[in-house]
Amino acid sequence: MHSLEYRITQVIAYTICGAAALCALLPFILLGIASFTDNTWAAVNGYSFFPKKWSLEAYRYIGVQWDQLGRAYLTTIVITALGTIASVSITTSFAYAISEKEIPGMNVVSFMLIFTMLFNGGLVATYYSYVRLFQIKDTIFALLVPNLLMNSFNVILVRNYFTNSISVSLKEAARIDGASELRIFGQIMIPLSLPIVATISLMTAIAYWNDWMNGMYYLTERGGGHLYTIQIILNNINENIQILMQNASAASQMGINLSKMPSTTIRMAIAAIGIIPIIIMYPFFQRYFVKGITMGGVKE
Question: Cα(first)–Cα(last) distance of the chain, in Å?
Fold first, then answer.
């Protein structure tokens, strides 16, 4: 039987957590409601949790371009899957290498990791290197490699997890039994590191799913338009609407009725379409995410 003080503490704690969770959910609720709000009403009254007029016009406008959107969705799923697998493989391998303190030169490699996390050559030098040296322009590698293939913060999280959460005696016992480093890494370290692996997998997948800047920098409409991801397409739709709204004469020549164009609610519909897969995926990783961040962020 719990004491009265304990029950009061639990009630207060659950109340605070519930209020915080509600505050976190409110923007998503508003996003969904606003995407179904009538554009004319929203333009006059703004976004509201209780709109007086509803409409599917924003989704109809997006649906007209579904052939392009469907291809972009498929491309995004493929890029996210390939990029996440490659990134997690490189990150965990790198983290395992620098966690072995007895290997000569690992301190230098660790310094290089930290240095490049804090300093970089800038956008011009990065663009020149990827386009002129690595020839990734208008290729699938333009969406996989720049800024996303390996993240220094993720490497540090995994390294700390390997160092602080997995006993050294396990690796020593495996080496005594004749296990190679590759076998130790694949059959001992990775299975025992599922929380941190799931954590960096989720963060990497979100980064790939939401990325549109690499497409803007390294893909051209003529040469790499077939590689456009959902974020690039949605961003282009939004920009096209803004251009048409600012140029009424061009819109009239194209036979477009600006009064029926969902220029306000389209932003919410675009955001809703973009985040649905992430919302669906997150609950499956949540328990690993919290545990991985907690343990991976601890340093001896």
Answer: 39
